[in-house]
Amino acid sequence: MVTDQEQLNQQFTHLQKLSRRQPILDWSTRLKQLENLEALLSDNQQALAEAISADFGHRSESETQFAELFPSFTGISHAKKHGKSWMKCRRVGISKLYLPAHNEIQPQPLGVVGIMVPWNYPLYLTVGPLIDALTAGNRVMIKMSEAAPKFAETFAKAVAHYFSPDMVSVVIGEVDIAEAFSKLPFDHLLYTGSTEVGKKVMAAAAPNLTPVTLELGGKSPVIVTDDADLENAVNRIMMGKTLNAGQTCIAPDYVLIPRPYHKRFIELSREWLAKHYPSIASNKDYSHLINARQFERAQSYLGELDERLIHPLTDAHSDRNSRFMPPVIVTEPPLDSLVMQNEIFAPILPLIHYDQVFDAIEFVNARPRPLALYIFSSDDGDITYIREMTVSGGVCVNEVIVHVAQHELPFGGIGQSGMGAYHGKAGFERLSHMKPIFVQSKLNGLNLLLPPYGELFKKGMALFLK
Q1: Among 28, 120, 199, 407, which residue has the least CB neighbours within 10 Å?
Q2: Which CATH superfamily is domain 223-410 in?
Q3: Phi and psi for 240 in degrees, rounded to 5?
Q4: Which residue out of 249, 343, 396, 429 is catalytically annotated?
C-alpha cells in the first residue's frame, strides 16, 4: 500500500523498470493475475460490501452485488475465455502491389497503467479497468478515491494479500496524492470521475504525453416517444434513477417526453416506488448519498426551484444526518437552473416536454454530448431516427444502464463525457500497443523502384497513378 509521494515515486519507478526489463508477459502469467483477482473478490465479497456501505452511511448490499460484484465476475470470466486469442499476433491484409510480403499486428503490453477510481462504484470501477490492464499484460497502480476511505483500505489490504507488488499496487491518499499520481509518466492513465476533474487529469498527463482514457459524466437524457409503453418506460427509468440513489454516471439524468404524459408518468413513478421501495426511509435496499457535501449539493438543486415544480414520490423526507434523500420528479425546471446545468448525481428526475421527435433531438444536440442516451419507443422508425441523429457514448433502446455490463460492447464517452473506451476486447486493445509489422519476402519487386528512375519506373508510376 502506497500512502505518500516518496513511496509513490519509488513504486512507479520500480514497476517501470520491471516493465522495460520484461515487456511481454505470457498468457499463463496473465491468467494467474486474473485468477488472483477472481479469488480476491470471491473471498472478500462481504468485507468489500460492508466497507462500501460504511462509506455511504448506508449502501444496499444487494446493489453492490448486482452493480459491482456481478459485472466484475462476468468481466473476469470473459477475459479468461478470450484473452489468449486477443494477445496472439495476427495477420492482416496487404496490397497486391507488395506481395509476397505480409502484414501483422502484434499486441504488446503498454507497460505501467495508472487507474484513478471514483467513489460512486468504487469496486467495479477499480476492477473493470484492472481486468483489461492485466489481460493486456500490464503492471498496474491504482489510486483509490479519498471519498471512500473504508473501501480503499479494505481493497488495498486484499490486493497486498493476493498480488505481488511487482504486478499491482494500491495508492491511498488525499487530493495532493491524486495530483502527484496523475503527473507520473504512465504508459496509460485511466480516470473515471467528473468532467471538471477530468480536465485537470488530462492537463497533468500532457507534459509526459501520457495517453489518457477519460470516463466522465454529464447529463444522460431519456427520450420517450408518444407510442412508447409508458409503464415499461417508468419501470426501467425509475430503476436507473434509484439505483445507488442516482449516484451513477450513466443514470437517466432527465426525461424528454410529450407534455400530455407528464401527469401519468408521475403517477406511475409513485406506484413504482411504493411497490419496489416500501417504507423507503428505513428500506435496506435504498442507498444514501455518499457524504455531506454531495447531500447539500443535491438539496441546493431543489432549493432554488419553485416548489410547484417539485413532485415528491413518497411521504418520506430528506435527512441530513443519515444523508437519506427520497426520489422526486421536477417538471419543466428553468433551463438555466442548477438541476438542468449540472450532472444531477442524486435521485432527482426532471421531466421536459417536447412536441415533435425532432425537437427532442434538437434539445439533446444543443448540449454537450452525453455519456449515455436512452430511447423508449415502439416505433422502429423513430428509434432509428434518434439513434442516427444524436451522438453519445452509448445507447440503450427500451432500457437503461445495462449496456455498461455488456463485455462485447466498448464503454466510453465522447466530447465532454470522455474519450476512449474499454471493456472486453476494446479494453484489451486500449491498454495494448497494437504494433504494426511489415514482413518482407526474400523475393520482392521493391528494388525496381530505386533510383536512378528509368523508363520502367516511369511506366510503373503511370500505371499506379491512373
Answers
A1: 28
A2: Aldehyde Dehydrogenase; Chain A, domain 2 (3.40.309.10)
A3: -65, -35
A4: 249
